[in-house]
Amino acid sequence: MAGTSSAPALYPRSGIHGTIVHAIGTEIVTGVMHEGERLPGDQELMARFQASRTALREALKVLSSKGLIESRQRAGTRVRPRNDWDLLDVDVLSWHTPESISESFTADLVELRELIEPVAAKLAADRATSDDLTRIEAAYLRMEKSVDDYESFYIADVDFHLAVLNASHNQLVQRLAGIIGTVLGLSFGLQKQARIPLRESLESHYGVFDGIRQRNRRAAERAMRITIRRGRDTLSQRRAIMRGQTA
Question: What is the DSSP string of 95-113?
Fold first, then answer.
């Protein structure tokens, strides 16, 4: 997914374990397999992935730990209800696609950002080091140079927000960087479909950087809220476009 290179999935994609985990996880999260649906039997899955029984069982344990499946004797392995999924798991978040994200979940993603990022910007205004400022500025300058390239712009945009989170120097906020990075990747994947001119978002991003650089907590926080609000409005436009296409 574009923009998630700075926040890689927790479980490795290489090797047979990773192949099975990510393939089945994606199918569940995107709705290819539905709540309560029984997974194919071990023999079928082993044949599909050319995997040993041990490799398959280990992969299913990973999916179970993320709340996606449950196994019962004589009942087989079934997909658990979405309410049981660990939606703060980076892998589970990354398995969503723009097409599979509901409006309510989109709103939840935006609200999560509103809860965390403005506070991180305010903390960064107090605590950012010269290295932090260099990283934030470098990401902003990459955004500025990529206003005609959605892919490059959003990769730089994710790096900008992650740099602000890290500049908060709050260990718990920093631990959330992987989650927020994946949320941003999802949000930007949706925003790209609206094809809103990218230059429009530069001003508020610069305001975040300048507020942090000037040690102005209120300005940094306010600019971050404006940035997130602009993204929310873009998502609303994207939904309107999608409704028009399906009308």
Answer: T--GGG--HHHHHHHHHHH
Mean pLDDT of the chain: 89
Query: d(Cα 96, Cα 98) in Å, to the nearest integer?
Result: 7
Summarised one tens digit per residue, pLDDT across range 69-126 is 999 887 789 999 999 999 999 999 999 987 788 888 888 988 999 999 999 999 999 9
Q: Helices 103-127 and 202-213 meet at what angle, rounded to 10? A: 30
Q: Which domains does the chain have, with CATH numbers?
A: 15-84 (1.10.10.10), 96-246 (1.20.120.530)
CB distance 35 to 79 below 8 Å: yes
Cα of 3 vs its chain's centroid, Å: 9
Q: Could you say which DSSP state residue 96 is in? A: -
Short-list 51, 67, 41, CA closest to 17: 51
C-alpha span between 139 and 153 (Å, rounded): 9
Give CA separation, 6 vs 98, 131, 146, in Å: 19, 17, 18
User: Closest Cα to residue 201, out of 187, 213, 212?
Assistant: 187
